[in-house]
Specification:
Layout (H helix, E strand, L loop, with lengths): L9 E6 L4 H15 L2 E9 L6 E6 L20 H8 L7 E6 L1 H12 L8 E6 L7 H6 L8 H6 L12 H4 L11 E4 L8 E6 L2 H7 L10 H33 L2 H7 L8 H5 L19 H11 L8 H12 L8 H4 L7 H15 L26
Parallel strand pairs: 2-4, 4-5, 5-6
Antiparallel strand pairs: 1-7, 2-3, 6-7
Helix pairs in contact: 2-3, 8-14
Length: 381
């Protein structure tokens, strides 16, 4: 992690010749061949071309299938980083490419002692958003939904309603506290992209590449202006979403109606980067009941939905992870019942976070409220 007060971000321009993805891959090849990095975690295309998955690449040849701007996000890559580092950090340095929501989730996981940043070099990339896996798979041959289509409509990003719902209202789409930054906002991506060094660790890793971090100030300013403009637009969309969602779910009856399609599959919990319990209460034998007990429960209201305990499951999830929710939208993407979980979790999460003046993923030193106790924390400010 970088302390912004102690390090001044510096940028250089990297030329693009045969497309942006290939230019970024060439940069990754240089990192593997010339720096201390032993490997890079980056989205890699599946052999059948049907999607992408985070992969730890240690050789330049597999980088041909890497795509830093993969058009879909099947998992939040912070879970992959947790798998890599939870038991024991790497002895050698590993580069990790993360979107902003993935990096913010990783920060929360580190504070929850589910990941370790030791010997990790975090590479943040400006995110143009991703498409829903469902619609991406329906686009056979990816003729319409692909990286090229994302970048082609880049200047109209705020109007791209084909993106995942979380991406359409995301106000945290640019990296802030990563070691290295790949910047694409506000630039002519057919010609160049910005490469930023954002920490002493990043500076040390990039030193063998002998890059000239001078002369990119005009493009860096264009990027900052583009980010500010889109952030302002996204905040307006978020406020509108919150208002609409509150009207829709306010009150117990409305809330239960909104979740009524839930089939208790627990997919939202499985794909959530913040849910990490190895022994989950809802996966335990606690809810294995005999038929007579189901009949007794049904007798109270005349009917009992099965699987049961749907409401208890969601309320418990709210209590466990809503303060650390980064609104990545994995829950909604994984829901087979098509419940608009992103709007629910983003709205409830933001309200809960405002109570504690807490923003998930903002800082490693900012304690998660659920893990701390302050006697006056719920008193009116």
């Amino acid at each position: 992690m970088v302390n912004q007060e102690q390090f001044e971000t510096k940028f250089t321009l990297i030329k693009v010749k045969d497309g942006l993805v290939k230019a970024i891959n060439n940069f990754f090849k240089e990192l593997l061949s010339k720096t201390a990095l032993k490997g890079i975690l980056v989205p890699q295309e599946l052999p059948n071309g049907s999607g992408f998955i985070p992969s730890l690449i240690i050789d330049s040849e597999p980088l041909a299938g890497a795509n830093a701007l993969a058009p879909i996000m099947p998992v939040n890559a912070s879970k992959a980083v947790s798998d890599l580092t939870r038991l024991k950090p790497s002895k050698g340095k590993i580069g990790v490419l993360l979107k902003a929501c993935e990096h913010r989730a990783l920060i929360e996981l580190v504070k929850l002692k589910q990941a370790n940043l030791e010997n990790l070099v975090i590479i943040g990339i400006d995110c143009p958003g991703t498409y829903p896996i469902q619609t991406y798979s329906e686009d056979k041959g990816n003729k319409k939904l692909n990286t090229e289509s994302l970048l082609k409509g880049f200047t109209k990003f705020e109007d791209n309603t084909e993106l995942r719902s979380s991406c359409q209202v995301c106000e945290h789409f640019a990296p802030l506290t990563t070691d290295i930054i790949i910047g694409i906002y506000g630039l002519d991506l057919k010609k160049q992209f910005l490469l930023g060094v954002n920490s002493a660790t990043g500076e040390q890793v990039l030193e063998p590449l002998q890059l000239n971090f001078k002369g990119a100030e005009p493009e860096a300013k264009k990027r900052s202006a583009a980010i500010a403009k889109l952030t302002e637009h996204r905040l307006k969309l978020t406020k509108a979403l919150e208002k609409e969602t509150q009207n829709r779910i306010f009150g117990l009856e409305n809330f239960l109606t909104e979740l009524s399609g839930c089939i208790n599959c627990h997919n939202c919990m499985t794909v959530c980067p913040i849910c990490y319990c190895k022994e989950c209460f809802f996966e335990s034998p606690t809810f294995d009941l005999e038929a007579d007990k189901y009949l007794k429960m049904a007798s109270r209201k005349g009917a009992l939905r099965i699987p049961s305990n749907m409401f208890l499951f969601h309320v418990t999830r709210f209590n466990h992870m809503v303060l650390s929710c980064v609104a990545c939208g994995m829950c909604e993407q994984g829901c087979p019942a098509n419940i608009p979980l992103l709007s629910i979790y983003k709205t409830v999460g933001k309200k809960a976070q405002e109570v504690f003046t807490y923003e998930p993923g903002r800082s490693l030193t900012e304690e998660i409220p659920i893990l701390t106790f302050k006697e006056d924390e719920l008193e009116p400010k």
